[in-house]
Design a protein that fits this description.
The protein is α/β, with parallel strands linked by helices. Helix content is about 20%, strand content about 35%. The chain contains five helices and ten strands, in the order βαβαβαββββαβαββ. The chain has a five-stranded mixed β-sheet. A five-stranded mixed β-sheet has the order 7-6-8-5-9. Helix 1 links the parallel strand 1 and strand 2. The longest helix has 13 residues. The two termini are about 20 Å apart.
């Protein structure tokens, strides 16, 4: 007697099958807020997983079509990430959302000489300060709180979490966020069409 096994259905190309989004951490980044907002706007009960970098996230994400990266249009290496991974990374959506208020903060210094910052908002670092590059706005606050720099460019959320003094509030920034579905090299979910 022969039995036929139906292939397990997996998500195809497009945002409708995405249930898990991966983005830049640690907790409190603008990208984390954007990931939750994207799921909310779509009415999807999905998960958000945070990574040290978007590049690390891409390596950890299954290529089943149910996972995606949330990126930001001003992420300094977005072009490299996108064009270097055309075989598996597909931009399927984008939206505009204001960031958390971006701030210059310190643990007490009035005019910080060193300022931790992600490369994207480096233009907010005062001219007289030396920038110290980190992987995210939230990491900038963590490093400043650990006395690795005298100040930081971070989100208001992260600054408040660490009890920082706000030296300048730049306000929220209208931002374009992009959704990149991760699929196998042939543009189909891994194992699509195969009997499992």
């Amino acid at each position: 007697m022969t039995t036929t096994v139906e292939p397990r259905r997996r998500a195809g190309l497009g945002p409708d099958g995405i249930r898990h989004v991966h983005t830049l951490g640690p907790h409190g980044t603008n990208l984390e807020a954007a990931a939750h907002e994207w799921l909310r706007r779509r009415g999807t009960a999905g998960t958000v997983e945070l990574h040290a970098s978007l590049e690390d996230a891409l390596e950890a994400v299954p290529h089943d079509g149910e996972h995606a990266l949330v990126a930001c249009a001003v992420y300094p290496a977005l072009h490299t990430l996108t064009f270097g991974n055309l075989h598996r990374l597909h931009m399927v959506d984008s939206f505009i959302m204001p960031t958390h208020n971006m701030v210059l903060a310190s643990m007490g210094a009035d005019a910080p000489g060193t300022v931790s910052t992600h490369p994207a908002p480096i233009g907010l670092v005062p001219r007289e300060a030396e920038p110290r590059l980190v992987l995210s706005n939230s990491q900038a606050a963590i490093d400043c709180a650990a006395d690795l720099s005298e100040g930081c460019i971070t989100t208001l959320v992260a600054a408040e979490r660490h009890g920082m003094r706000i030296l300048r509030d730049f306000g929220p920034v209208p931002m374009v966020f992009t959704i990149h579905q991760v699929l196998a090299a042939d543009g189909r979910p891994d194992g699509a069409g195969a009997a499992l």
